[in-house]
Amino acid sequence: MLAVLYGFTLTLIAYLLAKPINKKLPQLPIIVIGMFLIIGLLAVLGIPYESYMTQVNPVFTHLLGYVTVALAIPLAAMRYDDLPLKVMGGILVFASISAVALPMGLAYLLHMSDASIMAFATRAVTTPIAINIAALLHAPVTLVILIVILSGVIGAAFSPFILRHINDERASGLALGLAAHAIGTAQAWQRGSVAGRYAAFGMAVNAVFTAIWLPTFILYLQKM
Known about the structure:
By secondary structure, this protein is mostly helical.
C-alpha cells in the first residue's frame, strides 16, 4: 500500500510541476510535460521504471474507466438543438473508418503480424474501450495501450500548430476529441469550455460507434 501511495504521490508532484510550465509553454500539453518530469524524477531518485509502473498502473487503470464515464457531465451541458446532425454524422463516420483503415493499412504494408495489425485497428478510440476491443480481436493489450496513448500525445502536441488558424471552438474541439482521444479532450478544455464539450462529444460518440462496427466487421471477415 505504501508503494502505491509513493508512486501516486510522485505522479501528482509531476502534474503539479507541469501546470505552471504549461502556462508558460501552452503549446506543450500538460501530459507531455508530466511524462518528461516523471522520467526525470525516476532518474534522480533511482527508481526503476518497471517498479514505478507496477505500483501505479493498477490504480490508474482502475481510475481511467471512471474518468471516461465522467465525460458525460460536460456532454449534459451541451445544446443539441442547433447541432448539424447530418454533417456531424458524416464527420464521425469518416473519422472512425479512416482512423481504423489508415493505421491498419500501414501496419499491413510494413508486414507486421496479424495481432499487431489488429492492435493498430484500435487507434481510433480511447484507452478503456480500446482494451475491450483488443480482447475481442485477440490483439496484444500492451501494444494497444502504447498506440492509443502515443496517438493522443502526438495529436495533442501538434494541435496548437495544426489548429492555429481555426477560430471555431466547436471545430477545434471536435477535431481534438476525434484524433487525440482523452488527451486531446484535456487539451481542448484548455482552449475553452465549448471546445472541451465538443471534444468530449466527439470522443464519446466515436468510441461507441467504433466499438460496435469494428469488432463486428473484423469478426465477420475472420469467419469468411
